[in-house]
Write a structure and sequence with these properties.
The complex is a heterodimer of chains A (about 325) and B (about 325).
Chain A (H helix, E strand, L loop, with lengths): L9 E4 L8 E7 L2 E7 L4 H6 L2 H16 L3 H11 L2 E4 L2 E2 L8 H10 E7 L4 E8 L4 E7 L2 H4 L4 H14 L15 E2 L5 E3 L3 E2 L1 E5 L2 E3 L12 H9 L11 E8 L8 E4 H10 L3 E10 L2 E10 L4 E9 L10 E12 L3 E6 L2
Parallel strand pairs in A: 14-19
Antiparallel strand pairs in A: 1-2, 2-3, 4-5, 4-8, 6-7, 7-8, 9-10, 10-13, 11-12, 14-15, 16-17, 17-18, 18-19
Chain B lengths: L1 H17 L8 E4 L6 H24 L16 H13 L2 E2 L4 E4 L1 E3 L5 E10 L8 E8 L5 E6 L3 H8 L5 H22 L3 H7 E14 L7 H5 L3 E8 L1 H14 L3 E12 L6 E12 L3 E11 L7 E9 L1 E2 L2 E2 L14
Parallel strand pairs in B: 1-3, 8-13
Antiparallel strand pairs in B: 2-5, 4-5, 5-6, 6-7, 8-9, 10-11, 11-12, 12-13, 14-15
The chains are: A alpha+beta (about 325), B alpha+beta (about 325).
């Protein structure tokens, strides 16, 4: 089909492929961002993770373009994806053709998507008890239609425009343990290392800590979403980007908008202290996405009085984005 | 936590004295997923021996895992090494006597079994109960063993003393490596040209067939492939890459098994070893990529050494100790 005949959005038939193959597109700002086989109904597309659903539909289009089972298996191997029908991977046992999987998708009465590990399991079952699993590596690079450069540029554009605001999660002062500097702390779940945690710090009176005498713990509370939004008033992050595109300029963004945007993305937040640089304290916020297995890292550098200043404060920070985590075997290899 | 560990050790020592010999035995059964009866039996036997031996080693309080000579055959070389490395991180045991799991068929005849309960003795209370994943080759030999959780959680257990600063720096290395990979997929030759140091050492391994006629009889009976290494300059490498980009409409590079090592004396020099899957319109291969990265200028890190080696020759995986790493270069 000539490229010019592909509509920017909506559904269309592609005569070069199987007659049952219905293609659809999604567009943004006049550009096609997704081209795939329409496998799932609108209610399913709304109810489940659109990134995973879109990936499967995009993958299906690529598979249909490969006419032989060998070609399709080769593509699946390249992507690390397994399609397993009734216990058999594509091309083995009774699973001879991709269309058998489509039959099950069309007749399914339950769909479960299990995420949170290194592999996503999309599990479908029909009324006859027949099952279909699609196992997908939990990798941002595979799941999204953008490469790292495009994704970074998109995110920076969104950040510059976002109106999202920080939400205080109002942590409860339960299961507290004492720290060595006389504070109380909750949380304790760490990311990779013991000193990077989802800790929230409390005073001896069990109120959430926000005190310039404890600047690092207070900043960590703020980054973790434990402090009332009013404390962020006038705080602006001056972000230096560490991106693929070296020409991408840094941005200045109110802290409430930056953290609000990140809070909406489904990250798990972990914070830690980077120590001091002269008079300035340095803290790190690691934002880990458990479904797509990547990390954003924000480091901030600030003076203790910046926390409580009544004036506007610019906080110097560095941001690295979309750091893959699924393919790390050992980050701390030593000999 | 330490008290609990002591109690556990004492309990195990007690068991060693009074319990009968069956206490350590674990029976592993495949419920479904493997249709070949011989492979199923091999997998069941290998897993049962492994889990029983883990328990026996813990109960006996031994520091190293030893198998009877005929049982060593249940492992590939890589599988055995993997077990030793895991054991070096922590002793572990299987807390149940019967495990029934399904087999999962992977590519190339590999079978994986998951969800095997395991107690990691070096871990704290929140992390000691884990699940083991065992990979078997097409003969039912154990080829790989993993803890079935995200790498970052497993490392929680092992890396308790690492600073946030070190974590940040090493994640920056992973970020740099991902940008490097992205540049190949985008065919961004300028980016690649910029990240290589002008004096970069570039070594590429190539599997070559040995001419058997020129060898004596003894040599002929041995392996007939070897890896030849070719050194090239940055200019030569970039020119070859330009041709490659031109000849391939599509390139999809995938990096796996990334390992980051810092130079013992230079804080700004890092070595990264990884498995590279090269997929392109005309060609695909798998090999080990090693990069020595100078991070002195954090905004503009540069690659000083790049090596590539095939992952297999003579039909066998490249031994891990032959894969280039930071400690093989004098800096």
């Amino acid at each position: 089909m000539p490229y010019k005949e592909i509509p920017l959005s909506g559904q269309f038939s592609c005569s070069e492929l199987s007659n049952t193959a219905m293609f659809y597109t999604e567009s943004r700002n006049g550009a096609i961002i997704q081209l795939g086989v329409r496998l799932f109904s609108d209610p399913i597309r709304k109810a489940y993770d659109p990134v995973i659903i879109s990936f499967i539909e995009r993958l299906w289009a690529e598979l249909l373009l490969r006419k032989t089972i060998q070609g399709q298996s080769s593509l699946l191997k390249e992507y690390g994806v397994r399609i397993v029908l009734g216990g058999y991977p594509l091309g083995s046992g009774s699973f001879k053709k991709l269309s058998q999987a489509v039959d099950l998708i069309n007749s399914m009465n339950s769909l479960t998507i299990t995420t949170g590990g290194t592999e996503i399991d999309v599990f479908m079952r029909n009324a006859n008890g027949e099952t279909l699993h699609i196992y997908i590596p939990a990798s941002r690079d595979l799941l999204f239609q953008y490469d790292k450069k495009e994704h970074e540029e998109l995110m920076i554009t969104e950040l510059a425009e976002t109106k999202e605001r920080y939400t205080c999660t109002a942590p409860s002062a339960t299961n507290l343990s004492a720290t060595s500097n006389g504070l109380l702390v909750s949380g304790g779940e760490c990311y990779m290392i013991d000193s990077l945690k989802n800790d929230i710090f409390f005073t001896k009176n069990r109120s959430v800590l926000f005190d310039e005498n404890y600047p690092e713990e207070s900043m960590r509370n703020l980054l973790m979403g434990a402090i009332n939004e009013s404390k962020l008033e006038g705080r602006v992050l001056d972000i230096r980007l560490h991106a693929y595109n070296k020409d991408l300029k840094g941005i200045k963004i109110p802290m409430t908008n930056f953290l609000g945007y990140m809070q909406k993305q489904g990250f798990k937040f972990y914070s830690g202290s980077l120590g001091h640089n002269g008079e300035k304290c340095q803290c790190l916020l690691a934002m880990y996405h458990p479904v797509y297995n990547y990390l954003h890292i924000l480091s901030v550098s600030f003076l203790p009085q910046d926390l409580v200043s009544q004036k506007s404060v610019i906080i110097k920070s560095d941001l690295s984005t979309f750091i893959p985590q699924h393919n790390i075997k050992n980050l701390f290899q030593e000999k | 936590m330490r008290i609990q560990k002591l109690l556990l050790s004492a309990t195990l020592a007690f068991f060693a004295v009074v319990a009968n010999a069956q206490l350590d035995v674990v029976r592993f059964t495949i419920q479904d997923g493997i249709s070949d009866p011989a492979l199923k039996a091999s997998v069941e036997n290998s897993a049962s021996v492994l889990l029983s031996t883990l328990n026996a080693t813990v109960i006996a309080g031994k520091s190293k895992i030893k198998f009877e000579k005929d049982k060593e055959m249940l492992f590939t070389k890589d599988g055995r090494k993997c077990l030793d490395e895991m054991w070096a991180s922590s002793a572990m045991m299987c807390p149940v006597s019967q495990v029934t799991e399904k087999g999962i068929s992977m590519q190339n005849g590999i079978v994986q079994v998951r969800n095997i309960p395991i107690t990691v003795l070096a871990a704290d209370d929140d992390n000691c109960e884990q699940e083991l994943v065992i990979c078997f080759n097409e003969n039912g030999q154990i080829d790989n063993i993993m803890i079935a959780l995200e790498e970052h959680r497993y490392l929680d257990v092992i890396n308790a003393q690492i600073s946030v600063k070190d974590f940040h720096r090493r994640q920056a290395i992973v970020d740099f490596v991902e940008n490097f990979r992205t540049a190949y997929n985008r065919k961004d030759i300028d980016y690649i040209n910029n990240v290589f140091s002008d004096n970069a050492l570039i070594i590429t391994g190539k599997v070559v067939k040995i001419d058997k006629k020129k060898q004596d009889l003894t040599a002929q009976s041995l392996n007939n492939e070897q890896i030849q290494y070719q050194k090239s300059t940055k200019e030569e490498y970039i020119n070859n890459l330009k041709k490659c980009f031109k000849n391939n409409s599509y390139i999809n590079l995938i990096f796996d098994d990334i390992e980051v090592m810092r130079h013992p004396k230079r804080d700004d020099i890092f070595g990264v070893t990884l498995k590279q899957h090269w997929n392109s319109s005309n060609y695909s291969d798998v090999g080990y990529l090693f990069l020595m990265i100078n991070f002195e200028d954090e905004q503009n890190p540069s690659i000083q050494v790049r090596t590539w080696q095939p992952d297999k020759y003579n039909g066998k995986p490249l031994p891990r100790d032959e894969v280039f790493s930071l400690d093989m270069f004098n800096i």
